[in-house]
Each structure stands twice: as structure tokens, then as C-alpha cells.
Amino acid sequence: LGKKIMHFDSIGSTNDKAKDLALQGAEEGTVIIAEEQIKGRGRRGSQWVSPKGKGIWMSIILRPDVLPKNAPKFTLLSAVAVAQAIREVTALPVQIKWPNDIIYQNKKVCGILTEMSAEMDFINYIVVGMGININESIKDFPEEIQGKATSLREIKGENISRQRLVRSILENLEKFYLEFVKEQNFQKVLELWKSMSGILGKEVRAMGNNDVIQGIAVDINQEGALIIKEDNGKIHEITFGEVSLRGV
Ligand code: BTN
Predict the structure, then answer these.
(1) For residue 232, how far is its CA from the centre of ligand 1 (angstroms)?
(2) Measured between alpha carbons, how far is 191 from 25 in angstroms, rounded to an integer?
(3) In total, how many domains does the chain have?
(4) Does residue 128 sit in the same domain as residue 238?
(5) pLDDT tens digit string along 147-183?
(6) What is the ipTM of this complex?
(7) What's the CATH code of the domain at 224?
(8) In this structure, are 140 and 227 located in the same domain?
(9) Cα–Cα distance between 229 and 141 in angstroms, integer?
(10) Which of the listed residues 58, 130, 242 should we mutate to test ligand 1's pocket, taking the one with most ligand atoms within 8 A of CB?
(11) Segments forming the whole domain that contains residue 180
């Protein structure tokens, strides 16, 4: 991954660019990085503020030869790779909030937006987009998320090299990606995900389509679904949506 890196000063969204290039046949592993995004997108149609030079705004094109039902695994895999890379480069014990937020003391440092194009039985492409807050100060964030977001510099009190972090993310991602698609080994990713989880064993609230489920996050299964146990013992498997830690 990352043999071809395209760097933009300013762009709409690196995910949109990556999807365009993927449609035009860009090869697997192509990486799009921008200094600034004008139309950065978050999950669920939200906006992702991406000020110039302050963070890593990056998308990676993957073309795994696996069935589309495996798609959620790439989201978990990416979260593990980014969390691992942040730990290596900054020594901060960041955690993962299901499915793919990276948090530090319950504040969001990184969000991942995975988008896919697939037919019934094959994946055309997956674009993994990541936004990592590196050098922002709190006032760089929109007011409504100032209490919920933070940056690596705010936490560490020193500048973090974006270049080192990008390199480490690509190395980790490649390692876990090859392990999964070439050796069908997803166990390592699941174990790491669990060991870095900020929610397992905790009381959470999950918002699905219409309903809200409240209980203890007990596990994630082989498919990457979150298992929540309600007080009455009822077990739920959550495959998409958001979770929040109760009382946070
Ligand atoms: C989230 O809502 O948590 C996901 C945020 C993903 C943001 C990244 S920044 C690079 C890539 N391009 C986008 O437009 N979004 C993703």
C-alpha cells in the first residue's frame, strides 16, 4: 500500500477523489492525502472539518478479493491499524470505540469513513478515509464538538510528525490487510481490537435505525458485530450505527 501517493494542497474530499480514481481503475493501494478539505465528510452525512495542515486527511483504495459481506472487517482492520500506529508514534494509549472511532479519554482523535462499491459476489473497491486530529488547538474545532474532540498535540503538548504517522499507518494497515486477505487470518485483528477497545465491559447505548439498545458491551464477534447484553439478559448483535458510553 502507498506505492502511489497523491498529495493535494486543497481538495473537496479525499474520499470523493479516491472513489473517482477507483472508478477510473486506479490500482489497489493508491493513497490520496490533502492538506485541507473543503467538503470533508463524516459518517451519517455529517461534515468533517479539515483545516489546512492541522491533521491527516487521507484515503486509501483497496480491492480485496473477498465477498462483500466481509466489508465491515475492513473498517475494524483500519481502526486497529490507525490505533496501533498512533500508539507507536506517540506512545499514547489511545482506544477504539466501536466501530471505528479512535478516542483518548473519551474524546475523539480520529474518525474513519469506509465506502464501498460492490456487486452481489465481489467487491469493486473499498475506500478507507481517515481523519486524524494532529495539530489543532481546541478552538480549531466547531463549537459543538469542542467538548468531544481533541488532537494529539493537545494531549501530548508537543508537535507530532504527520509524516511518521502516515508511514506507520500504511505499514500497519498493509500488515493486517495482507494477513486477512492472503492468509484469511482475522484473529489477530480481533484480538488487537479487543485489547484496545474503550468500550468492552462498559455500559453503552447503541443507536440503530429506530431503536435504542442499552446494556453492557460484552464482545465483538468474528464478523465484527458488537454484542450488547441488556439488563434482562437479552443479547443483541449490532452491525451498524453508533454507540455512546453511558454517562459520557
Ligand atoms: C467520522 O464521522 O467519524 C468519519 C470521519 C472521516 C473523515 C475522513 S478525512 C479523509 C476522508 N475524506 C472525507 O471526506 N472523510 C474522510
Answers:
(1) 37
(2) 34
(3) 2
(4) no
(5) 999 999 999 999 999 999 999 999 999 999 999 998 8
(6) 0.99
(7) 2.30.30.100
(8) no
(9) 35
(10) 130
(11) 5-195
